[in-house]
Amino acid sequence: MLGEISDPRFTNHFGSAEDLADILAEHDMGQPDVVISGIPFSKMPEPVATRVAQAVRDNLAEGGHFIAYQFRRDVVNITEPIMGAATSSALEIRNIPPMRVYKWCKSGDG
Q1: pLDDT value for 83
Q2: Single pTM value for the model
Q3: DSSP 30-93
Q4: Which residues span the domain enclosing 64?
């Protein structure tokens, strides 16, 4: 099914989000303006989840956004120490079951 997607903006990669820097380099991509994630932070060992959040922060363009849609708030506990407080948190009731969408902005302080 993924092989049928012909949109040049789409890149499929099988691997760990911990390795985001290597993934971006392998696909000759610069720092993304937005990272959207639905990976279940609540089901990952905390050290792995922390490394994923740190990789997002380290590789996100300045002023870029990290958006995570989650059923549980574990992503907040993992990401806040790395990126600060979420700039928004909204309950999406049109999803069944409803889920929360969190957004962080990478500040210009590096």
Answers
A1: 97
A2: 0.88
A3: ---SEEEE---GGGS-HHHHHHHHHHHHHHSPTT-EEEEEESSTHHHHHHHHHH-S-SEEEEET
A4: 33-109
